[in-house]
User: Fold this.
Amino acid sequence: MATVTFDNIKKRFGPTEVIKGVSLDVADGEFIVIVGPSGCGKSTLLRMVAGLETITEGELRIGNRRANDLEPMDRDIAMVFQNYALYPHMSVAQNMGYGLRIAGLPKAEIAAKVQDAAKLLQLTELLDRKPRQLSGGQRQRVAMGRAIVRAPSVFLFDEPLSNLDAKLRVQMRLEIRELQAKLGITSLYVTHDQVEAMTMADRMIVMNAGRAEQIGTPLDVYERPATLFAAQFIGSPSMNVLEGEGREGALWLGAARLPNPTGHRGPVMLGLRPEHLVPDPEGPIAMQVQLAEPLGANTLLHGKLETGQGFTASLPGVHTVAHGGEILRLGIKPENMHLFDRATGLRLG
Amino acid sequence: MEKRVTFKGWLLPLCLIAPQVLISAVFFFYPAGQAVWQSLFIPDPFGLSSQFVGLGNFEYLLGDPYYRASFVTTAVFSTLVTLASMIPALFLAVMADRLVKSAGTYRTLLIWPYAVAPAIAGVLWMFMFNTRVGVVSWYLGQLGYDWNHVLNGTEAMGLVVAASAWGRISYNFLFFFAALQAVPRSIIEAAAIDGARFWRRFFTIVLPLLSPTTFFLLVVNIVYAFFETFGVIHTITAGGPQQSTTILVYKVFSDGFVSQDLGSSAAQSVILLVVVGLLTVLQFKYIEKRVHY
Ligand SMILES: Nc1ncnc2c1ncn2[C@@H]1O[C@H](COP(=O)(O)OP(=O)(O)OP(=O)(O)O)[C@@H](O)[C@H]1O
Ligand SMILES: [Mg+2]
Assistant:
């Protein structure tokens, strides 16, 4: 168990900078999720912690020890790969015990540790199988088992669930979280799935193009997104972002007059989460509904505003739309309105 | 769903396999049959008539100490050629695989020897080690070693092995290199995180993953050592000194075409055929089982 500290970490591949300075203090036992779109540098960041990529600039400390120049094996970490990276010619037991064998532990001790881990992960029946004789979910478990038998200080996960079907993903998500809580091992978990990020993280880093847009608890990020990017990336369906203007003590979307929660004047970007909109005959927002997606518990309504901008609302219950489109009036509470600077995308107020 | 292509009549399929069957018949089955037939006769010295001797040729061969020695020579030779062409190839491939930059250049350079025909490679090596004018033998002489593969059987064996293996290294290198590149990076990385250093990873992870390629090359190289090294041996030692480099194939040639003992030569071909058949069956039966993971 250990803390992990990123001190202005940068990574360049040749001339291209892919990590542009990330700083973060990970507490002992914390579960950090690194989330962001494809190519933003999540894996690169994780691989720098693992020692599989060199750190171009900045300092990485694992358990208060400078780790920049340590070999992967000397960092006391374990990693679960996206494709599991199991050794195909070894049985499940051999896969799990490989690290211990390399460390030179006696056979009996290795067997005992493998047994313990297998019991924890319900793999006892499968110990003699080869990886190719396992299902995707079982392979995933073996990869987890290989990570936990060595009792590392830090777990690293690189999109471990992305090859599983939706249902199994939900189940494994819970299992990983439970296991991590039980073992209390500091974890860094990479995903591009914002639901995984929201449900698993103690804190998450929202990454974009090599930068950390926001670091905070899932609710923090959801309720007070620090940037326009974080606002749009977290939350499903994604937040409506509209050009607005603050003047005369109100916020104007074209001709629609909304309350101005920050009192900010001049052009701004206004973010409204679809699920925060409520039907209100007196509401300022007039939406022409073009398509309804009933999801059972709620309905997604897609359409556009008078200004012509696309707009999505998520309303509880079942809604149907007349063909040709009806005008729906919507309102929103001022505390659910997010204002961002037009130029920098930073949160206002 | 059945993915097999099915034909209505029998004429088209027949036409499609006919070329294969014809070529096999003309160049393999007919000569093989001839060899089997001839191995039962002893022709007279003028080749005008021949006498049926049944299995006499075989009986004579198996009692012939020279023939038995040739078996041993072949075993030693093919083992050495296989090892000497595969181990350096694997080593070079591992080294080239570690390179990030200029791996392409090295790969190209390493392939060149394969383009040299065996007989020419033989001549090349013969000149390098020529007892009077050879560059290498001269240097060895300077170092106080008196190289003479014309008289020394061990040296002769070493030279034909080197000359035969040399060009094969390129061929084997290509296969090993491709196989190494196909080993998933994340598996190597997982092993590195598990604490295995380079050579440990190589022996516990990479080598087992290469086993299908290794097995394939083993078969191909043994067959090469048996049959395709004729040119090298013929140019460098012609089987000598004192038959120390006379492998089975070379003996078929020298007994048949040089000594004109056609009956014995045919019998030797038949034995060779059986030996290679057995070897292949053995290899596939016992080794292949273990290379699939
Ligand atoms: N070895 C490399 N050489 C050059 N560029 C690289 C290398 N590895 C990654 N990159 C680049 O760095 C950027 C970040 O890559 P990275 O793999 O970290 O993305 P990611 O966030 O994990 O994406 P994904 O969700 O698709 O896995 C990408 O633009 C990628 O092209
Ligand atoms: Mg990635």
About this structure: Chain A touches chain B at residues 50-52, 71-73, 77-79, 81-83, 85-89, 98-99, 102-103, 130, 132, 146, 150 (CB under 8 Å). Residues 237-348 of chain A form a domain with the OB fold (Dihydrolipoamide Acetyltransferase, E2P) fold (CATH 2.40.50.140).
